[in-house]
Amino acid sequence: MFTLLNIAQPDTQQEAYRLLTAKKSNVILGGCAWLRLGSQTIHTGVDLSKLGLNFIKEYDTYFEIGAMTSLRDIETSVALNRWFSGILAKSVQSIIGVQFRNVATVGASVFARYGFSDFLTALLALDTEIELYQGGRLTLAAFVDMPRNKDLLVKVIIHKTSRTAAYLALRNSQSDFPVLTVAVSRLDGAWKIAVGARPTRAKLAAQAAVLLAGAGRDVPPDCLRQAAELAAEELPFGANMRASAAYRRLLCQTLVQRGLTEVTACR
Amino acid sequence: MQIELYINHQQVLLTVQPDDFLVDTLRKQGLFSVRRGCDTACCGLCTVWLDGRPTLACSTLSFRAQGRHITTIEGLRHEAEGFARFMAAEGADQCGYCSPGFILTVLAMKRELANPGEADIIHYLTGNLCRCTGYQGQLRAVKKYLGVAECNM
Ligand SMILES: Cc1cc2nc3c(=O)[nH]c(=O)nc-3n(C[C@H](O)[C@H](O)[C@H](O)COP(=O)(O)OP(=O)(O)OC[C@H]3O[C@@H](n4cnc5c(N)ncnc54)[C@H](O)[C@@H]3O)c2cc1C
Ligand code: FES
Ligand code: FES
């Protein structure tokens, strides 16, 4: 169990960032679902409640999701799930239960870049940017590869491209951590294939996407299989208590192929 | 720090530590229906409503309840008893340790979902663990309670 000595409730992002960086052990409090399982002593927990970051806003060409929005809000947002074949709801709906998703926040789920993150995998297959208080705006794909540093994630921006998408994950039992997560999407001829829980951070299979880009509109089934094989080859896999690297590689091939097939079936 | 909140519609003023969680704060108020099962956010036994939304009390810092409404099963006695009769009729209650959290989730589901099917019900109730029974009796009870029973049994 963690120890939290003080709470600060800043009124501005600037003040939140100042507090966050004032001491090594200061941290931002999302829902605390994850933080509380640790055993660290936190000098000051920075609560973002007064910054108005609990929102899903729809604009003509993009969505903005505030850092303090809950995963349950993602799951139930009608506006958001009219887009991208509804994969955002699909990606969060197996995370424990409704009560948990009412607690866990978007900001923490993205900023923490958990290897097992379902939500991060889905976002990576879309046209997603994030806004950091200090680091500014950048693509999620760039952020995923960045080393850890202290910053405040303000919001997630998803461009409303007409991507068709599919989300798949395998769990040993319902509501357990995933063994592998896969999100696949297509915009015209441009594909994105994101694979997470490898067990490390989600990553795009770039070569497989290139292979598919050359295959035109009606991708032959053979080519889908080849692309799935290539994705499994080009990505690194590791072992943990849930599965071996070899198992994950096989699973990757199967799930990617299913995802690709699902997307090509969308008209 | 001091927080002012509503517990089962009554305004209360409480002193809490920064790292107090709702499960402890509420139990200190004598609300022993709020249970701690796993303490790792996995079992749903500690469920309370926070502004009407089912929430894990073991994972919610107490200070976050400032100005908000908390509902425990003590605040929904009549409705909870109504559902408990369906549970008993199906033989789905044993030690009862998980019942308050489970019932609060069912009552929240009844408000949130219109005409749920079996899959919707199972989805909403995933994350509520019971160490005594299987889940078929509970599912039968929920379906009968919601009036969606029989058709696919
Ligand atoms: C038992 C259990 C099972 C889980 N299973 C799954 C699963 O199957 N799939 C899955 O994807 N996830 C799973 N999770 C992870 C879950 O999604 C995360 O716990 C959740 O996303 C964290 O949300 P939180 O708001 O509670 O984070 P917190 O615990 O509050 O914070 C986590 C970290 O993020 C930092 N942080 C919070 N907000 C910000 C911000 N705005 N900017 C910068 N840093 C910030 C915090 O300082 C902290 O370091 C599981 C978690 C638990 C506890
Ligand atoms: S005690 Fe809160 S989920 Fe188990
Ligand atoms: S009835 Fe005993 S834990 Fe559920």
TrEMBL record, chain A:
Domain of life: Bacteria
Keyword 4Fe-4S part of the UniProt annotation: no
Entry-linked InterPro entries: CO_DH_flav_C, CO_DH_flav_C_dom_sf, Diverse_Substr_Oxidored, FAD-bd_PCMH, FAD-bd_PCMH-like_sf, FAD-bd_PCMH_sub2, Mopterin_DH_FAD-bd
Keyword Zinc annotated: no
Gene Ontology molecular-function annotations: FAD binding; oxidoreductase activity
Boundaries of every FAD-binding PCMH-type domain copy: 1-190
The entry's keywords: Flavoprotein, Oxidoreductase
Protein's UniProt name: PucC: xanthine dehydrogenase C subunit
Organism: Sporomusa termitida
UniProtKB/TrEMBL annotation, chain B:
InterPro entries found in the cross-reference section: 2Fe-2S-bd (IPR002888), 2Fe-2S-bd_dom_sf (IPR036884), 2Fe-2S_ferredoxin-like_sf (IPR036010), 2Fe-2S_ferredoxin-type (IPR001041), Beta-grasp_dom_sf (IPR012675), Diverse_Oxidoreductases (IPR051452)
Name recorded for this polypeptide: Putative xanthine dehydrogenase subunit E
2Fe-2S ferredoxin-type domain ranges (all copies): 1-76
PROSITE patterns per the UniProt record, alphabetical: 2FE2S_FER_2
GO MF annotation: an example: xanthine dehydrogenase activity
Keyword terms: 2Fe-2S, Iron, Iron-sulfur, Metal-binding, Oxidoreductase
Organism: Sporomusa termitida
E.C. numbers: 1.17.1.4
